[in-house]
Design a protein that fits this description.
Length: about 450
Amino acid sequence: MLTAKSLYKAIAKSMLGRYAVYAVNLLSMMVLARLFTPETFGTVAAVMVFFLFFQLMAEAGLGPAIINLDSLSPGDRDGLFGFTLTVGLVLAAVFAALAPVFLLFYQLFRVDEVVPYIALSLFFFAASIVPNALLLREQAFFRIANAGLSAELVSTAVSIALAKLIDPLHALATKGAVSAATLFLISWYFSGKTEFGRPLPGKKFSAIKPLLGFSGYQFGFNFINYFSRNLDNILIGKYMGAGMLGIYDKSYQLMKYPLMLLTFAMTPAIQPVIRKHAGDHEKIAALHNDFSFKLSLLGALAGLSMFLLADWIVLIALGDQWLEVIPVIRILSIAVPVQVVLSTSGSFFQAMNRADLLFLSGSLSAVFMVSAIVIGVLQRDVELLCWFLVVAFHINFVQSYYYMYRKVFKSPLCGYMARMLPAGVVVAGMIGYSVVFSTY
C-alpha cells in the first residue's frame, strides 16, 4: 500500500546513504580547490561538458526503463549489459578521437590532454548503467552510497598524490577516470545480491527492444536537457576563457549542493516506490502535494542561507583565490527554492509512465534555458547570464507542473501553486534585496 510513510521511509534511506557521499565530495572540492587553479579546473570542465553529452548517449534512458521492469531473464540481463559495454567502448573511442576537434573549438591551451582520461571515464560509466539500475530498482541505497563514497575517496586520494608527482592538469583529469572505474567495480559486485542477479557480458542485444518505447522518450528528454543545462559551460569556455569558466563552474557546483542534499538524494527513491501505484492518480497527487510543499520550505531556507552567507561559503569551501564566485553564487541562490522542487518532477513523470510528457516539458524548458544562456553570453556578463537563468528556472517550474497536474493528475494547477506561496515570498525578498543593493 502506498502511503506518505512508505515514501518518506525510502527517501530517508536514500538521503542517509547519499549524505556521506556528498560530505566527502564537499571535502574533496575544498581540498582540490586549494591545490589547483581556476584555469586548471576550467580546462577540465570544458571537456567534461562534452563528456556529459556522450554520457547521455551511452545511457539513452535505459536505467529508468530497467527500474520499471517487473521481470528480466538472465539472458536479457546479460544482453543489456553486453550492449552497454559495447556502446561504452565505441563512444569512448570516438570521444578520444575528437581531441583535436575540442582543441580547435575551444582554442584553450592543452585542452586535448584531458580527453583520454575523460574517454576512460565514459567507458566505465556505460559499464555501470545496468548494475546501478538493478541496485536502484531494489532500493539498495546504502550499497549505492558505499560505492559512491569509495569512488570519491579513492579518486581524490589519487589526484592529491599525483599532484605532487605529475603535471597538475593530468593529476586533476585522472580523478574522473579513477572514480568511474571504482564506482563500476563496486556496483557490479553489489548487484549480485539483487533480484535479477549480477550481469555478465552477453550477446543478446535484442533484449533492449522492449525497453525502447519508454527509454526513447527518456533519452529524448535527456538529450534536450543536456543542451539546456550545459550550453552555458560550452559558450563561456569558448567566448570567455578557462578562467571565467572555472569561476562559473564552481559557482554552479556550490549552488547545486542544496539540490544534492534536498533533492538528488531523494529522487532515486521516488520512482521505485511510486511505480507500483501508478494507476491511483488521486492518491499520488495528494502525496505529491504534501511532499513538494515540505520540500519547498526546505528549499527556501537553503536558498536564503546561501544568499546571506555567500561570502563565508566561498571562503570556507574554496579559499580566497575564488572571491569572484561570491556575486555569482548569490544570484544563483535565488533559483534554489524552485529548483529543489522542480528537480523531483522527473521522477514522478517516470513513475507514472509519462515519459512522453517529460519529453514535452523538457523541450519547452530547453527553449527558455537556451535563450537565457545565449542572451547572457552575448552580453559577455556572467552575472547577467545568471539573472536570465533564474528567470528561466521559474518559467520552467510553472510549465512543468502545468503538465503534471493538468495531464497526469487531472487536477487544477492553482491549488498547487497556492501551496508554493511561502517559498515564493522568500524568493521575492531575495530579489528585492538584490535590486536595492545593486542600486547603491
